[in-house]
Amino acid sequence: MKKEKIRSIVLRELKKNDGILFLRPSWVSRDFMPPGKRLGLSDAEYDVGKRGYICERWLVSETRVDNRIKVENEGLSYLKIDGEDILLTEALAECREEILGTDYSKNHNCLGRLLKIYDFGTRIFYHLHQMDDDAAKVGMNSKEEAYHFLDKPLGPHPETFFGVHPSVVRENRQKEIFLKYLRQWEGESILKYSRAYLNVPGEGFHLPSGLLHAPGTALTLELQESSDVMAVLQAEIEGLKIGKDLLHHHIPEDIWTARKEEAALDLVDWEANADPYFYENYHLSPQLVEETRQDGAIEEWVWYNTVKFSGLRITVEPGKKFFSRAGGVHGLFIWRGTGNIDGFKTEGQKVSLTQSRDELLMTADKALAGYWIENTCNENMVIFKFFGPDINVDNVPYIKKYK
Prior knowledge:
The chain is an alpha+beta fold. The protein has helices at 3-16, 43-46, 88-94, 96-100, 132-136, 166-170, 174-184, 245-248, 253-259, 261-265, 270-273, 278-282, 364-369; strands at 20-22, 26-30, 53-59, 114-118, 127-128, 145-149, 159-162, 195-198, 204-207, 213-214, 220-224, 231-232, 236-237, 240-241, 283-284, 287-288, 297-303, 310-316, 321-324, 330-336, 338-341, 344-351, 356-357, 359-362, 371-375, 381-387. It is built from 13 helices and 26 strands.
């Protein structure tokens, strides 16, 4: 489709919806992990053959999946417009100022963040996401991220391993301990050098890039920088073999050839991984926004401690309304309940492979003007409101640093 036509269609949609874009669900498969099957699809729909299983849903996404088996546009969101197949990335390219806002678009050419639900039947392998310089070497962004654990069955292993025991780094034993695991590439006992923390629904963790982690089986909303970069350090999970190519998939070939497994250890921020106050410095609990409290409705920060991304949870009681306003373009994901957003019907936890009523993008002008959320059902309506870089700067909370 020609650029002029894309722009015309998107501008027409923005006018019709008064600054709101609706998105189709974007499903992501993985061939290295079993699914948890808690995303609302039928059992048969999770199986996608050689590509593995649908294990994630990416929301208001401009990020492309970097899977071994390539599928055109996997991970990218499409606008929900009858009779049209327009990617969110195409809409942003042709209507950047109208979506991002005049001022924000001067320094940002995209949304710059990704919200996903990940849903695995086992714990995810011990891995890290490269920091800025290392990610740039393979043409990717770094991937700082933050978790929010959802209120569905927690799965068999609802605890997440983070970092390493402080003594490993204090005694400078990183290579002595970890190189043998990476060279032998078998088993999962590498985790004995890490520490696990319970996945508590309604809480979460903030995780800068360069930190080792093995997420637990809680159904998790993860807000992150726009990237799919990683290096995997665990060879096996409950008998499931993990290909060693995932260790060096995002390490430049010349560096891997020269340094082999040591190249993976070079990616680790060892000082941060050995933080004895890891829980105190990275644990996220909901922070009430007192200024926006309304009759029967509240906002709480659930992703914070950084300006790279941020997000809130809105809870509206049955029969109540909430007037929402924000400082810039943002996404909305309706997790629970049925209601109206600016007069448009929305519904959480009712989804198919191609349709949903739970995923929206609010343009900058719409965010600044504000919009009404009305709960029309007999349970609390729960909505997640998420932002990219540099939108919430002075108002976002920070965790008090323990040393």
